[in-house]
Amino acid sequence: MLLLDYLQHRRECRFKQDERASRIAALSAYKTPFSALDRDIISRPIEELVRDVQADAGRAADLLRTYTKVALNAHDKTNCVTEVLVKDAEKWIKDGSINFKGSLAGIPVSLKDTIDVKGYDSSVGMTRNVLSPKAEDGAMTRLLKDIGAVPYVKTNVPITLLSFESANDVWGRSTNPYNPKYTPGGSTGGEGALLALGGRIGIGSDVAGSDGVPAVYSPMARTMNDLTYFTRAVLERGTWNYDPSCHPMPWRSDVVKEYRDKKRLRVGVFRTDGVIDPSPACKRALDMTEAALRRAGHQIVEIDPPSPYEGLYLASRLLCADGLATVDNFFRTGEWNDRGAAQMRFYAKLPRFVNPTSTQEYWALIARREAYKRGWFEMWDRAGLDFIIAPPNATPAVPHNGMHDAVSSCAYTFLFNLIDYSAGVIPVTHVDRAKDRLPRDFNIGKLNGIARGAYKLYNADEMHGLPVGVQVIGRRLEEEKVLTLMERVEDALGEDKFRLLEVD
């Protein structure tokens, strides 16, 4: 039985890869060099493209053509695409499935592989989920079509979604657009790779940094203008009309105005999680941001938050409270697992005195989490902060298979998910082999075991050119505020602002 299960797993992997190749081969009309029209579309603000389509629905086909070229080019370079929806997208444009009077009229949007689209698998990189096309669009897909967006591809993820890499047996390994030896991040890594190479808007999901990490490893949205416009469009439509778990909170323009107009902001700096200090490249990005904000006249304050280690402990224990049994149920015999996720599975299966999972113990962890959240709330009030800046990760992108050593380096993003704070990531600069070397007196042997794992992978020479960035953090349900403050940070950086990859 085990052998048969393994052979079935391999057959289904081949089927999905052959299916993808066939769908890409059918798009020969899109495999032409970028035209002047394509480059014009790529360079224009999203709101201008929307107005064009609202005035003439026929322009939607031009946008789909351009961004399909972008996706195919990105996939050739990084293996970022999973399901290819383009032929159906052509039909949706013609048959009235898309609302071309909506606020995202005609804008092609790529989707993380987890998001349901009628007629397509949501495999999440596991063969137990293939050959099971969805009977209906998921909530996000329906919302997107209702405001005029055109879903056109789905993108790669790590198996289990518990990794900053994006690789699995079904779709293979995605690579970083800046350096193929490195990961694009995860779990929304394929999305990050596509957007770095010219995609317009992408949809992901985040548990421990699944959007935040790809946003710095290989940026998620290409411009703050696009990100803000898209978020406003989605909230104005009303996510709560599609998903009962969403808060009924429309876009708050008054919050945007307040934080655009505020002359002097009070900015807290979260320099280290106390477990893994940021590497020289990541520290430099934080220092550049701090210096830019000072030059712009804003007030920088040191903060004394509750123990980040306590936060990482609670987040990890709650995430793995079932011993990862839910994840285990999806594995087939012989199915490859990400080394970082495999390490988490190992620790989750240790004896109960190491890893309690009873209902009583679970609720005790919940109580500790709520007390921890209260600690952050009180610290923020005492400090009188507008927002916090922090590294998104201790190191730049990890090399492939690096999560075995760096699996616990997620605290910088995981922490703010635990306390349910709004956070965004801005790429700031690139690793520089001259500026970002480890000090001559650096001794990895003096680090704690978790930090040693991360720093084993840090090499400024090999990482030269990889993006590094900064997190901008607000409090709970402050998305409009955080987006506005991200714009303020980017404006403060001025000429030092991050340079995007050219679309070629």
Automatic annotation (TrEMBL):
Transmembrane segments: none annotated. Residues 62-217 form the Amidase domain. Substrate binds at residues 161, 187, 207-210. The active site is at residues 112, 187, 210. Signal peptide: none annotated. Pfam families: Amidase. It comes from the Eukaryota. GO terms for molecular function: hydrolase activity. Keywords: Hydrolase. InterPro entries: Amidase_dom, AS_sf. The keyword Hydrolase applies. Belongs to the amidase family. This is Amidase domain-containing protein. The lineage of its organism: Eukaryota, Fungi, Dikarya, Ascomycota, Pezizomycotina.
